[in-house]
Design a protein that fits this description.
With 332 residues, the protein is mainly alpha-helical. It is built from 14 helices and no strands. It is 65% helix and 0% strand. The chain is globular, with a radius of gyration of 20 Å. The two termini are 33 Å apart.
Length: 332
């Protein structure tokens, strides 16, 4: 039958299921449900308005990450709804894609909430993907990677086009969600560890939990297509993908150095670059490609940041219990 572009599949008939991993990702996503309004921004507002708490370097880091993520989340949502969903015809996989699309909407709402809370100029934040070269470089790279599946005439009707679809899925899931998001995550969570902008930091933790699931689903989807179409996974194609991912690492390092040129307390831009190399090796291994960097993780605490249980003082914020979040295996 196959998971993609299958005319014999009835997308309305979800039972019996073929790909139980897709169903599990859906259930894990539901267990991780949250909304940005659950997180208090009062302390963040006070710190942002104060001239004694945040350095210029820290303010730049916050603005660069809000600028990148505010539009990147819309870009990822468009990929799901307008491109990937059309070609992935399996019903349980489509169910997860609908869940993921909802989560991208929550992420988009998160940055609206952050900008409104801090009183930021939306014209400045939401055009940074055009005005800041290191942000524009990442966005342009992903748009170029995924343009074929946005072509309304594109069909997965042979080895060449299956390979092209895999290429674009890797651009979207592995590069955009698995690499381009993670230097920003590390920056904002490093700031939170210093008790600065903890509200935004907490929301970034929840977003990273979601993105870990998106990455896991994307890699399972890619690996399933490879397994069902082994002839497309040639050595030449694998080498092409490795080079593509290495180019993305260069762009993410440039962004890390641009967003945090002077470093934070005890953390510098080179460490963010090392973290990018470390997670890139993990992404490569996840789709059966060889490590390229062999770099140690400079931020072991990042893996702890996705294993959070939301237990708050009742008078500080509404209590939200994650059903199974503590038992999930997250990719940091």
């Amino acid at each position: 039958m196959g998971i993609i572009n299958n005319s014999k599949t009835d997308p309305n008939k979800i039972l019996p299921m073929t790909y139980h991993w897709a169903r599990q990702h859906y259930k894990d996503g539901v267990a991780n449900n949250w909304t940005p309004e659950e997180v208090s921004m009062q302390k963040d507002v006070e710190q942002w308005k104060s001239d004694k708490v945040l350095s210029e370097t820290e303010r730049r880091l916050i603005l660069w990450n809000l600028g990148f993520f505010s539009t990147a989340e819309s870009l990822t949502a468009n990929n799901i709804v307008l491109a990937v969903y059309r070609h992935v015809t399996n019903p349980e996989a489509r169910q997860y894609l609908l869940r993921q699309a909802y989560e991208e909407a929550v992420h988009t709402d998160t940055f609206i909430y952050c900008c409104d809370s801090l009183g930021l100029d939306p014209d400045k934040i939401y055009t940074m993907y055009q005005t800041v070269p290191s942000i524009r470089g990442k966005d342009d790279f992903v748009v170029d990677l995924t343009k074929s599946i946005f072509d309304p005439t594109f069909e997965i009707d042979g080895q060449k086009n299956i390979r092209r679809f895999i290429h674009d899925l890797i651009g979207y899931y592995v590069i955009m969600e698995g690499i381009f998001f993670y230097a920003g995550f590390a920056m904002m969570l490093a700031l939170k560890r210093q008790n600065k902008m903890v509200g935004i930091g907490e929301q970034f933790e929840y977003i990273m939990r979601d993105e870990s699931l998106h990455l896991a689903f994307g890699c399972d989807l890619i690996n399933t297509i490879k397994k069902e179409n082994p002839e497309i996974w040639t050595k030449e194609f694998q080498d092409e993908i490795v080079e593509l991912i290495k180019k993305s690492v260069v762009l993410e390092k440039a962004y890390a150095k641009d967003a945090c040129p002077k470093g934070l307390l005890g953390i510098n831009a080179d460490q963010f670059c090392d973290y990018v190399e470390h997670i890139t090796d993990r992404r490569l291994e996840r789709i059966d490609l060889p490590k390229q960097y062999h770099t140690e993780n400079p931020f072991p605490w990042m893996s702890q940041s996705v294993d959070i249980s939301k237990e708050k003082n009742f008078f500080e914020t509404r209590v939200t219990e994650y059903q199974t979040g503590g038992s999930l295996d997250w990719d940091e």
